[in-house]
Specification:
Aspartate Aminotransferase, domain 2, 7-stranded mixed beta sheet, 2 domains, 4-stranded mixed beta sheet, binds pyridoxal-5'-phosphate
Length: 421
């Protein structure tokens, strides 16, 4: 397999873009492949190699790359102009559909990224409660804004320390952390900080370190303890929204938070973010209330048109039923492969998400950190050589799209079998 053109381009890119990329996860070492085009389940690089893609832009492309119906919706919108700076009927229609699907959402605001969605959701929760602190789950990813860039906590009750230079410790001193799947730790942190605690933000399924799944009644218990203590519960469903079900993880698990953030899938591959929740909270957002939030590209017509089309297709074609079946089959077959080889690896996943952990089945961030990251990277390159693009990190989830054919899946399983050896 030749990657000469990608290598040369990367050497140039490194002088212009930090790490040669526009977002860190793309900086595959020693150099990433540069994409020439993508269609359906396949992504093609500038050296002419083609891969079956399980990254799928890290979540948005649930219908595969360049879905023709979405493409047509975007083109139709482009014909009418693509940025107005005025309200549109499109955004009202999409808001109505989302509110109909997510019981936690009475009202919402469109933004341009998931990062903006969680940043604004936290601001609204703090504005609503008049309190400053919030809790996040260790290893939970909510985008790249200051207050949430606190990952590797050293215990349930320690104050957050930023993960990045350039973030004053003052900016994260109100960020508390607890491990996932540990209701006692959460209860204790809530009780200890009750006088100034605004919110808990969490991914109901931890999509950015795995997936790592909630155990037993964990999410129901989280709902109970937050409700009893007047802590605003924010589900960050930027990955799980429209992925686990039309109504996201909250529909799948039957647990309704107070606020929800969405992104990725609902833009049909164009930039979007959404934060929504109870009327009392979202009405506090400007201009109807005093929590300020604004954006030039918010409710961008092409993104919203693409989002409306995605929703139509997901519903009409009963996409989740089919994808869940493919996901189960994939997990079962992979588990068989792992068992046959006598490897102490674990296949984890839900709906159309899956991952092989090179280690024990994790319940939280600390567990995931114990997996064989270097071994995984070696495996990643072997998969690439076999024509399969899985995420270049033990911490990122594999996604399946409707564009993946039976033939793709069989080829992928053969590649897993060959390369796990
Ligand atoms: C991707 C992601 C974000 C950030 O979204 P961007 O659009 O990349 O800013 C936030 N939360 C979760 C759970 C995500 O997976």
């Amino acid at each position: 397999m030749s990657l000469d053109k990608s290598r040369d381009l990367y050497n140039k890119a490194r002088t212009l873009l930090p790490g040669g990329v526009s977002s860190p996860v793309r900086a595959i070492k020693p150099y990433p492949f540069y994409t020439e085009s993508a269609s359906g389940s396949k992504i093609k690089d500038i050296d002419g190699n083609e891969y079956i893609d399980y990254c799928l832009a890290y979540g948005p492309n649930i219908l595969g790359h360049a879905n023709p119906t979405i493409k047509q919706a975007i083109i139709s919108q482009l014909e009418k102009g693509w940025l107005y700076g005025t309200p549109t009927e499109l955004e009202v229609n999409l808001a109505e559909k989302i509110a109909g699907l997510y019981p936690s959402i009475d009202m919402l605001r469109f933004v341009s990224t998931g990062t903006e969605a969680t940043m604004s959701a936290l601001r609204a929760a703090r504005g609503f409660t008049g309190k400053n602190k919030f809790i996040k789950i260790e290893g939970g990813f909510h985008g790249a804004h200051d207050a949430v860039l606190v990952k590797a906590g050293s215990g349930a009750t320690t104050l957050g320390k930023p993960d990045s230079l350039g973030i004053p410790e003052d900016f994260t001193k109100n960020t508390l952390q607890v491990p996932f799947n540990d209701i006692e730790a959460l209860t204790q942190v809530i009780e200890n900080n009750q006088d100034d605690l605004a919110a808990l933000i969490m991914e109901p399924v931890m999509g950015n370190i795995g997936p790592v799944l909630p155990k037993g009644d964990y999410l129901k218990d989280v709902r109970k303890v937050t409700e009893e203590n007047d802590v605003v519960l924010i589900f960050d469903e930027v990955i799980t929204g429209f992925r686990l079900a039309m109504g996201g993880a909250q529909e799948y698990f039957g647990v309704t938070p107070d606020m929800t953030t969405l992104g990725k899938i609902i833009g049909g591959g164009l930039p979007i973010g959404v934060f929504g929740g109870m009327k009392e909270i979202i009405e506090m957002v400007a201009p109807s209330g005093s929590v300020y939030q604004a954006g030039t590209f918010s409710g961008s017509p092409a993104s919203v048109a693409a989002g409306l089309t995605v929703l139509d297709i997901l519903k009409k074609e009963e996409v989740h039923k089919k994808l869940d079946a493919t996901g189960s089959m994939m997990r079962n077959r992979l588990s068989e492969i792992v068992a046959d080889m006598g490897l102490d690896y674990n296949v984890v996943g839900i709906a159309s998400m899956f991952k092989i952990f090179f280690g024990d089945k994790p319940l939280n961030y600390q567990d995931v950190l114990k997996c064989d990251k270097e071994g995984y990277l070696k495996f990643f390159f072997k998969m690439l050589e076999s024509g399969v693009f899985v995420p270049p990190s033990q911490f990122e989830t594999n996604f399946i799209s409707t564009a993946h054919t039976e033939d793709d899946i069989e080829k992928t399983l053969l590649a897993y079998e060959a390369n796990l050896k």
